[in-house]
Every structure is written in C-alpha cells, then in structure tokens.
Input
Amino acid sequence: MIEVLVKNILALAIVLVSFLLPAKIVYADQGNLLKINESWSRATTSSQKTGAVFLKIKNVGMHSDKLIGVEADIANHSSLHQMIHENGVMKMRAIKGGIKVSANSEVILSPGQKHIMLMGLKKRLKENSNIPLTLIFEKSGKINVLAIVLPAGSRGPDHSGISEMEHKKHMIKK
Amino acid sequence: MKKSTRIGVVFAIVVIAAFAALAEWLVIRNDTITKAPNGLIASVEIGGPFTLVDHKGRTVTEKDYFGSFVLVFFGYTFCPDVCPTALGDIAQAIDELDTDAVGVIPLMITIDPDRDTPAVLAEYVPLFHDRLIGLTGTRKQIKDIADLYRIFFSRAENTQFTYYLMDHTSFVYLLNPEGKVVSLFRYGTSPEEIASNIRRHMRG
Ligand SMILES: [Cu+2]
Output
C-alpha cells in the first residue's frame, strides 16, 4: 500500500517537474523541429574560389528560431548572403543578424534571393558530390547537412517555388 | 585674385565635378534602358564595336558575329549566384530553340578581366553550354564595351577577403545579325521567354 502511494507521489512529482522545466530544455528539442530540405550547390571550375549553397528550412515547431551562422570545411569562410537588385544591378551583401525562421513556417534560400556563401573554396565543387555543412541556429544549435552539387547552370532540384515566381514577376507583355 | 575669390573658384569647380559625377551615375542607373520593360528596347543607341579575346585565345571583334543572332551576358566566373543562374537560363534557351539554335551565338563577356583570362574562361564556359563563348580583354577594352552596353560594374567594397566580388548589371541582350541590340532580358526572365523572343525576331 505504501509502495503504491510512493509510486504515485513519484509519478506526480515527475509530471510537476516536467511542467516546471526551464524553457531552455524545450529548445533542446527544437533541433528535430527544424527540417532542412533540398540542400544544393552548383559545380565550379578549379579556378573559381566561390560557391553558393541553397536550401529550405522548415520549422514545424512552436518557437521561432534563427539561422545565425554556417561552418563548412570546404571553404575558408562561410557566411549568409542576400542579393540586392537595384535597377538591374545585382549586389551581394552579408546578412547581419541572421535569418529568422518563424514557428510553423518555411524559409527558402534560393538563387537571386539568399544563399550560404562559400568564400575561398579549398577544392572545386564536383557535380554529384556532397558538401558537408553545419548550420548554426540561435536556439537549436548546430545541425549538419549535406548539400548535393548540381550542374553549374542548375536552378535547383525543384524547379517550382521561388524561381518560378521570379519568372512570373519579370514577365511583361510586349 | 583675392584669396577668398580663389577659394570660391576652387569650391565651385569641386561642386561642378561632383554634380557631373552624380549625373553620370544617374544616367547609368536610371536611364531609359535600365527602366525599360523586359524584351523592349528604347530608341537609345546601345552596343557598338569591340575588340576582345575569346576563351580560345583568338582576337575577335563584333564583326565576327555578324550574320547570327547573339545573346550577350556580362558577368564573371567568381560570381556564385547571378551569373550561373543567367548562364544556365541562356543555355536552356539555346536548347529550347532546338534547330533554330544554329543561328544564335551565346556570349559571356567578363567584367573581371584581371582574373578571367582566356584559360579561366575556357574551363568555365563549357560547364554551361558547349556553344557558349567567353570573351575577355584589357581593363580598358572591357570598360569600353561595358559602357557601350550601359553595364555598370564595380568591385564590392568588402576587402576583408583575398577574393573580391563584383556588383554588376545582370541584363542579357539580344543582337540581330546586323549586330544591333533588339531585346533586353532582365535577370529572372525564363528560358522559354528568351527563346520565344528570339524566334519572333527570326521570323521578322
Ligand atoms: Cu554571396
């Protein structure tokens, strides 16, 4: 009888404690709630020392997170970049403050928009090879991904989405 | 001249020079070309003669391409996003044209002649299409042709790294067999749209 009582008290205590756990523990779970899909890059020549990685980040969790950095052994320096279109002039600039991924939403890094910039490639990106990368999130911490190297002129594994929207936006009747 | 007058004159010259620079900048960025809708060319004269070197090391001029439709894109090989996208689209447009493609020559003119030598271009252009031709030249030759085509380019200010990047206009131009610019395609124009525009010009 006492044994059963002790068990019940223990169970109650566990439930109570789990409610009182600090928010940080919740975030530790967040890693599984961020899905990284369709990571890809483009083939380079031996003289090109720059590359770009594109991917999709889906946050299926209840908390927003932020991509704040990238690590890649293949390059001397990796960072987050944003393209800026200005009267036909294209500029590439570092993203300060990271890329926010809101709860229950998806962020797409795609050509002409955002990318992970690889500066100072240590070796050429060969078609069909994989580039290991580590994404660093503010709350979820590090997430490892493999980006597939597609042909140099590829628009990505998925032709729909942003690039198609881009196309439509630029379509003007003659 | 009194000292104060002299200072005044110098000041006036500086102001005029600054205005001239601003005016030039505005012309390149805000003229009828950069504002023109896709596939349309205003009556402003664009393009002109050039002497450059192709990726096989041969000296070429605009006359070498007379008789064919020419797609011209200005870019550079260190460009990780915009240039591969544009060149991929050009390559796809060429494939889209199928048998009509024999009458079209795709050109990529580098705006980064310091790094883009013929040898570097020779490794780069076939990644996109076996018919793509890469052109380079001296800094002066490149500046001259970029000006003729209203292409703005400059090194991005970030000097933190050994490797610099460039800001540049990302238009693709279509030249007719007489070497006249007949269409302008903005970044993001679909290969299908480029191909159908070329076909329209071919049919006259
Ligand atoms: Cu970049």
Chain A has a mean pLDDT of 82. Residues A 52, 81, 92, 115, 117; B 80-81 surround copper (II) ion (CB under 6 Å).
